[in-house]
Amino acid sequence: MDIQFFKESPFTTIISFHKLIESFEEIAQSDIDYRSNYAKAILEQIELIPELRTGIQDYSVIKNNEALIKNILADLFPTALTQNEIKAVTIPFQNISFNYTERFKKILKNAGDEFYMEIRDFSEHQFYINNCCLILSNYYKQHIDFNQPFFYDIPDENGIEKHYRILYNADFMEIIPTENSIPLTQEDIDQLIDNYNDINLWKSKFPKGSWILRGFGIVSLFDATTESAISILKSNLLKPGPKTVATDQEVSNIFQSIFNLPNLKVGFIIYNPEEEKFIRPAKYENQMKSFLLSSDQEVDCKNAFFGCSFENLLDNREPFVISNVSKFTEEQTNKRLGEHLLQQGIQSCIFAPVIKSGHLLGVVELVSENPRDLNSVNATKLDLVLPYLTDTIDRYNTDMQHQIEAIIQREYTTIHPSVYWKFKRESQNYFQNMNHTKDYIFKEIVFKNVYPLYGQIDIKGSSEHRNETVKIDLKSQLTALLEIFDNQESNSNLVLLEQRKFELESLRSELDFPLKADTEQHVQRYIEEEIHPILKNTKSNAKSEKLEKLYFEKLDEKTGMFYHERKKFDNAMSIINKRLATVLDRKQVEAQQIYPHYYERFKTDGVEHNLYIGASISPTKPFDIMYLHNLRLWQLQTLCEMELEHHDLKESLPYELDVTSLILVFSSALSIRFRMDEKRFDVDGTYNARYEVVKKRIDKSHIKGTNERITEKEKITIVYSQNSEEAEYLKYIKYLQHKKILEPSIEQFEVEDLQGVSGLRAIRVKVINNNSNPEIKKITYQDLLDELN
């Protein structure tokens, strides 16, 4: 017969009652008449079925003699305890069991005909090796602690999963080697003990069916539902990450087992102490829901929605229990909350605060569709699980803070991955040397002997363009207002209207001259304070009313002013900056493969970038000056690509803007230091400051002896001071001319003297733009706006 749950086992199993039969034979020889007579009667029946002594391998023998076997086992299965004990005859770890107590029969009947009893999380690997360990323990007398908690998970008549701990009694079993068994030395046993996971090794030492397991065992179950459910809950709550966290159904099943309520559901909300709000964490929205915040993402704790009900929970940190929601709703102060619960079919509920170190972390919600299912008595069961919920929500909050800090570092600070290791090392030093009696002094983050590279693409004449768009918008708005006033009906405010028309015309005339610093603000304030009140309080005819409606429709929601031309300009600036920054960032990924280096970029009226390369930034990799030359060529090529990107964008832009490109060459190594107050790197030392001075002033400088700027649209200007730098970049230019990226002609000139800096020279060369990408020209302005948003 097939009596094993798994197909392979080191045992051939033979069910035998020989040990009990031998005890009956001893009793039959005793002087106690009633015991002796009972034993003799049993033995007479056993003689008719010799397999009961010699061994049973055909399960039908057991089924056909259930009454006799029950009598044989009567001393081990007392009738008085059959309604209480959960016990049966079995073979450890195997799938055969019989002679159930009445309570065991009832449990299996309630589970249903389709239920199949199997040990929780018990694999074929464990089955085989546990049987081998039985042999090592009982035959070889090895002290091996291979016992671990085993459980049966059996649903009751309501579908609630109950958890039963399994205990085995193997006193009536014996283990016998066959001719196929392999004798083991202590060295073999030690090897097995050290290699639990090597199933092939165990099978080689204990071949399939090489031992006989003769006799029977007794399995006893005890209801460990609460303890096991808490353990399962703990395991689920400790799962890392949102993708592996337990779902609301899994958690509900666990709580159903603990509270013995089939309709119990669970939710939770987080408490935000800074804003005094309850929050439904979006991170777990698909795994765990909330019944208090079924539709809202967050709600103020003092919201009238909660009425006075939550005062005890918030102030005294005590659970809030509603055993009958319908009755609770009858009171006016509870009406809103009660109706909210009733709409979800909730008739009883518990809202328990999760507390750690006196601080409220969140609220766990237990709800049921039946009145009085949840009440103040069974609410005490929460004491068993709240510690684990506390640790989980606290871990969620800590994890959230860490992720927020990581986002801040990634999005809002300048700690580049290439230098992160040094910040991390200093932070580790701080963490390991924390002393409450002494302040730790942070070491400065300095990288010495690094070579700088600076480049920029600047939007040409951006200030002039911006001023021009401001003028156009202001003139359009003033003209629209004057047209409204011209169509106003004559009334008592006629004199005031004439004065305002005069002032509007004066303001419009001023816009024919260069824009002053405060002109825009002055006009805006005048319109808002003097003109708009008149429009709102003056009666208008049909034409004037129509003009007013059109006027107010044209006002920008944020500024309250005409913002059409400025918006085109701002959008064009943003599109250019975003596209150029994207090219630079994409190319930077490739550049890091040349040699790890520090990189930062800024978007202003264009895109500028700083690079620093040197051995101190990547001390684990040998540095050679060749890497600097490679990076310089990469920078020049990247600026060419950015120029082409802009050229291809120009036709689609709402406002045509040109750009100029610049590279500053600086061959001396310098030091950069992280400025704690500014949270950014800057060059270190007085001599090195010369480099920063040149960076800030060079793009607005002129060719020496002329009024012509050193930068020009569609051209790249390379500023340098040494002959070696000139020779190096002329080689790069020659190479890119060969690649048909740069035009053949080259301009070379001296740069005018800057404050404290003289002797600078420059090379200027035009980028060939007739090889642009034809696909980009198909992009519309709306496409660019969608991309921007």
Automatic annotation (TrEMBL):
Coiled-coil ranges per UniProt: none
Domain GAF, chain residue ranges per copy: 312-373
Pfam family name, one: GAF
Protein name per Swiss-Prot or TrEMBL: GAF domain-containing protein
